[in-house]
Design goal:
Elements: H1 6-27, H2 34-51, H3 65-85, H4 94-109, H5 115-121
Helix pairs in contact: 1-2, 2-3, 3-4
Length: about 120
């Protein structure tokens, strides 16, 4: 068993997705460039695939949790390298790297089996 349950991860998914969308305005780098839209796209994508994940907070349960965690890790890696990939590292990079590392770590420490699946298996 890992540190985070799928239920806690689901709560984090929706909170972090919303925060990623709002972060450029909250942190003052909403200039209409890629530094803003990378965050908005990552947050929007996280919200969409969370809705479709087969876990406690998923509404349309079609994506298995391991795939969801791979998407989180990919999103985190993309966020972390985006300042250099898109050339805005001279303006802002710390929020992107911090959010990316958080997503990767959350993916690594989250259980891959929802609690209702474990109960059904007994």
């Amino acid at each position: 068993m890992r540190l985070l349950s799928t239920r806690v991860h689901g709560v984090l998914d929706f909170l972090v997705g919303a925060l990623l969308i709002a972060a450029p305005w909250l942190l003052g780098f909403a200039r209409g460039g890629p530094e803003q839209w990378v965050f908005v796209a990552a947050g929007g994508a996280a919200l969409v695939y969370s809705v479709f994940t087969d876990y406690e907070l998923g509404l349309v349960k079609v994506l298995q949790m391991p795939l969801h965690l791979w998407l989180d890790a990919f999103s985190g890696a993309f966020l972390a390298i985006s300042p250099w990939l898109f050339g805005f590292d001279q303006h802002v990079w710390i929020p992107h790297v911090a959010a990316g590392v958080f997503e990767i770590l959350a993916a690594l420490v989250t259980d891959t089996v929802p609690s209702y699946e474990r109960r059904r298996a007994r």
